[in-house]
Structures are given as C-alpha cells and as structure tokens.
Amino acid sequence: MTDGTAHIHDHEHCIDTAIARARELCGAREVKLTPIREKVLEIVWRSHKPVGAYDVLDQLARTHKAARPPTVYRALDFLMAEGLIHKIESLNAYLGCGEAGHMHESQFLICRACGTAEEIVDDALDAALDAATKRSGFTVERKVVEIAGVCARCQTL
Ligand SMILES: [Zn+2]
Ligand SMILES: [Zn+2]
Ligand SMILES: [Zn+2]
Which of 92, 89, 94, 2 shows the shortest CA–CA distance to 40? Predict the structure, then answer.
C-alpha cells in the first residue's frame, strides 16, 4: 500500500494477490513453495502490521500442530530470501512485500498508534543513500530505512 488507505480496502484481495504472485515467482524460479511456507506467507499477510515469529507460530499451530519455532524460522528465511516478505528489524517482525519480484530497496513508515507498516519504494531516496554512503567510503551490508511515527489515518482519529 502506498496511498495511505491501508485500513479501508479489500484486504482479502491483498492476500490473494500476494499468494498468487508468490506461486508464480517460485514456479518461475523453480523453488518450492511448500504448504507450510505458503501458510506462513498467508499469516504474515493477514494484516499490514508486522508480525513476530512467535505470533506466526501461534497461528500456524492451529492448522499445523507439529509446527515448532525452527519450522517457522526456516519458512520465514525462505520467504525473505525469495523477496516475498521483509523483516522490520526495529520491531523484530515480518511484513509481506507488495513489490515482490521487483528489485528494490526498502523503506518503511511504521505507525506507533495502529502498528501498521507501509512500504515505500523511493528510488531518489535510495540513490541519495548510495551517494552518502559512497562519500563516506562505507561498505553497505544492509540498507533498510525504518521511519517511526503516526500514519495519516491515525492522525485524523
Ligand atoms: Zn491489504
Ligand atoms: Zn518490498
Ligand atoms: Zn496508524
């Protein structure tokens, strides 16, 4: 979501689109989107709020009783490696990626009031970061911008 309407939209559509895209990408890449991995992806996509690994496990255990933390971490690692979800380090939580399949650097607007995180993909911001780190002679290993604040909707409540 990039239009600030994260709360008032057909979220089923977001989930369906994300799952369909994941199947398509994994098929094209010849990697296996196993039922567990797909279920974990669906759980992460249940809302636009980043979800922690243990919350994922709680929900997964409802349908997959044998699921354990390593099951969840392996699935999350796979989904991250395929660019289907992102990790929000400041929250130690995961968020579905709406731009899966496109190379992009991530910037997130994280609302402390409602807990949603909105991914913005801004090439100009990314280029500015590249220039700034280059000037400092810094070798970048991870480049994720996490901005904390209050979203447009929460400001009007
Ligand atoms: Zn949605
Ligand atoms: Zn993304
Ligand atoms: Zn909010």
Answer: 94
> What separation in Å is there between the alpha carbon of 9 and the centre of ligand 3?
15
Residues around the ion ligand 2 (C-beta < 5 A): 97, 99
How far, in Å, is the centroid of ligand 2 from the Cα of 119? Answer: 7
Q: How far is the CA of 107 from the centre of ligand 2 (A)?
A: 8
pTM: 0.88
How many CA atoms are closer than 13 Å to the CA of 34, on its beta-carbon side? 9
Q: What is the pLDDT of residue 157?
A: 80
Note whether 143 and 105 are within 8 A (CB): yes
Residue in the structure block whose two tokens are 């255990």: 61
Domains and CATH numbers, the chain: 11-155 (1.10.10.10)
- The answer on pLDDT for 1 being more than 50 is no
